[in-house]
Amino acid sequence: MRVPNSVVLPVGTHVDCCREEEVEEKRHDIVARIAAMLAERKNNLTHFLDNLEGSEEPEFYMDQWERLKEMESRTLTILNLVAVNCMDHHDIKKLEVTILQHVKNEELFPEVIRVLPPIYRQVEAAIVAIAQSEEVADHGMMDLQYLLSKLCQCKHLANLGRELLQDILRYLHRVGLVVWYEEIKHLESTVFLQPTFLITMFKLLVRHCLVQQLENIS
């Protein structure tokens, strides 16, 4: 909901634990919940905007109003839910095919038809090689300037500049190869070459039962 023009593919797992009719019931329930969530979000944004516009001194809330208007303008495309049995290789392949079909849809992803300069591919290949090298820690965190110096050691990338590298990192961030939070001051100089490490960390830290687990520690 916070990412501009997001495309979301809901995936329902554990189909093997349900009867066939239950799968359809749960599918309809999830779709209804998503629709209700989006409607509630829209109503909340409208309510907040109305409150700000109706305040006695709206000029003091201009920054907040602009942020809310930006969120209101962002589109969110929800694709049809895919139900899979993660224990069935055929279902996993079906999910893979579905994802690829959506990704190649130019209406959903206009950048699919974008022709990239050769240096984008060269930098991408070099970053993959660096991430897989033994000298890089498992977490894959690397200083932006250090990454630039490593890339410039490649013969065909000797003239790579910082601005061009940042443009390429924005693209690689969008396609999910790396994670670079350039908009966060404390993280703008750090590039995560292993996004899966972040996912693992988030799974350890962000859990619905975390508070209860912490309270149970003597």
What does this protein structure show overall?
This protein has 218 residues and is mainly alpha-helical. It has 2 domains: 7-104, no CATH class; 118-201, Arc Repressor Mutant, subunit A. 53% of the residues lie in helices and 7% in strands. The protein has 8 helices and 6 strands. α1 runs antiparallel to α2 (62-73). The radius of gyration is 22 Å and the shape is globular. The two termini are 38 Å apart. The relative contact order is 0.09. It comes from Galbula dea. InterPro entries: P-loop_NTPase.
What's this entry about, in short?
The chain is mainly alpha-helical and 218 residues long. The chain has 8 helices and 6 strands.
What sequence of helices (H) and strands (E) makes up the elements?
A: EEHHEEHHEHHEHH
- The backbone outline, from C-alpha atoms, is globular
Total domain units: 2
How large is the share of residues in beta strands? 5-15%
Please tell me how large the radius of gyration is: 22 Å
> How many DSSP-defined strands?
6
The amount of helix comes to 40-55%
Structural class: mainly alpha
Average pLDDT score: 87
Organism: Galbula dea
Protein name: MFHA1 protein
Layout: helices, strands, pairs:
Elements: E1 6-8, E2 11-12, H1 20-53, H2 62-73, E3 76-78, E4 82-83, H3 89-103, H4 118-132, E5 141-143, H5 144-152, H6 162-175, E6 190-192, H7 195-205, H8 210-215
Parallel strand pairs: 1-3, 2-4
Antiparallel strand pairs: 5-6
Protein name: MFHA1 protein
Notable characteristics:
globular; mainly alpha; two-stranded parallel ribbon; 8 helices; 218 residues; Arc Repressor Mutant, subunit A; 7% strand; 6 strands
